[in-house]
Amino acid sequence: MPFDSSSRVELASLARLATPRSGRTAARLGLVLALALVAASCARSSGGSGGLAAQASTASVSISSAARALAAYDAFLAAYWDPNTRNFFKESDHPLNVTGIQALLAGQLYSDFWWEAHLLELTLDVYELTGSAADRAQIDAVYDGFVSMPWHGWMLNPYSDDLGWWALVLARAYEVTGEERFRDRAAAIFASITPFEDATYGGGVWWKRDATFQSKNVCICAPFALVAAHLYSWTGDPAYLDAAKRVHAWLGSRLVSGDVVLDNVSGTGAGAPVNVQLTYNYGTWIGASLALADATGDPSYLADAQGAADHAMAALGANGILPDEGTGDCAGFKMILTRYLLVLARRGDARVAAFLEANAASAWSNRRADGLMGEDWASPAPSGSILSFAAASAVDVQLQAALASRPPIASSPSTTLGPFYAATLPADRAVLQSASLATASPGYTGTAYVLGLGGGGSATFTVSPSVAGEYTLVFRYAAAGGDVPCVVSVNGAPVFVFSLTYPMGTTLTFPATPAAGDWRETSVFAYLPAGSSAISVAPVSGALDLDALRIAPSPAW
Hints:
The chain is an alpha+beta fold. The protein is built from 15 helices and 19 strands.
């Protein structure tokens, strides 16, 4: 069926937008042109009182937003994606001359821990738009690249919200892909956060897992409620629903005033709310409210979401365009708000869909020649380096505008969460090299302990987790002669060790103990595949007595 003149102009525009720079982009152009054929054909054949021109115009907007989104994403990948490490560079002019693990750990090269969670969200949005095998493979690449890097250290991160963002995106990744490893890791991260909910300030979850800055923030409490709602939707376990409702209610009582979402409660006594309004707090409050509306059928939750969305669209930013909230972490906040505005738009709220389109169009109109956009969607993108988080936020609103008229592909499958492996292995069950067993010191776990394990010696334990994942390896030992540096290996590969006290690398230091038989514990995090694995500990120098190895799925905080 032939196109009318407006459709022909639209297709010419699409070709200019998606000029192929790679095989991936060429494939995208084919996909978008196919969408154009379908949409234009439907517009011409449907007829109706609205008139052909109006319908063709609607099809044209939809086609344009999809092409724009994919062109923006491909420009983003060209600037930030490192296919060798499968990580995203932090800056568009990433300093390739920076080398060495300490430079990487200092955050000079790759995107920050929690930014990567949102870059995975971006990748999921692309796959929702295209459904292509290449974009499905990219989901795995982003996740596998992140966890393969030595600095990711799930459970060493002291920020509850950093972990909450990962639990949230992995819950979504499970619903989109059906991969159980995403489900299991989301559940494990959520379980590691739950101890940090308590009655201080009347409830809520601590922002940090230490005492350096004590506050309870929307940025952890709302994602916590959202993840709990996901887990409830999969399992039907009422404990998850209770957790989501409880923390949501606390947020509503302490950090939401009418339709205004504040930032945190901190200070002494009952604490005081801090009235800072940030887009990402509105986003997660909207998301948690919508999730609870679905879980309970209670219309008050939907009213919470709609009220906050209306306020955010009307009061944040100017002229209907969301604000520039600054650089650093703040540069990507907007993509979290627009992510949950998309959920409302997909429920038929045309006002929200139009708002997303207006913001996407404004950001796109201010792009650079290389297709990158910055944190200010109302002004031309800066000529210098642009942070990946800022650029990703502007790309994601393109995708969200294109997705607003489409149903989500994610589902809430019914599932049972398999338990992670946990075990305690006495040292008398290890295979020893250049070491022997003894019983002289009391309080050991099994029938004996390893005496004087030193340089040139090793103890190797065999473990058999049924679920692959990151585990805590906890060694019970005594080292009366001083610190003992050791190499811990899994299936022959040394484990990378994070430490705030000792140098980071492949050596785990067993700190000195006051005396023999004064058993202490030290731990390291390691990925264990499903099935049999050999875990060995080999001192580099000095000697220690080794009592047991304990395997746990979450940190011993």
